[in-house]
Amino acid sequence: METLVVVSHPEIEKSDTQQFLKASAASLSQVVWHHLDSRLPFDVTAEQQAITSADRL
User: Fold this and answer.
1) Per DSSP, which regions of the chain are E strands?
2) 57/51 Cα distance (integer angstroms)
3) What are 44-53's pLDDT values in tens digits?
4) pTM for this structure?
């Protein structure tokens, strides 16, 4: 069962909170970390596909 974690932060590498959350999720199986800001400009169809193909958000 895949879990999609969608995050958005303009400077994610500098965010202690985001780094903590990502590190916490690293030990979990089937978790996909989906950073929206790294996908600009958005491909709406691809984003919709990522959401609909995940088992959990």
Assistant:
1) 3-7, 31-35
2) 7
3) 999 999 999 9
4) 0.79
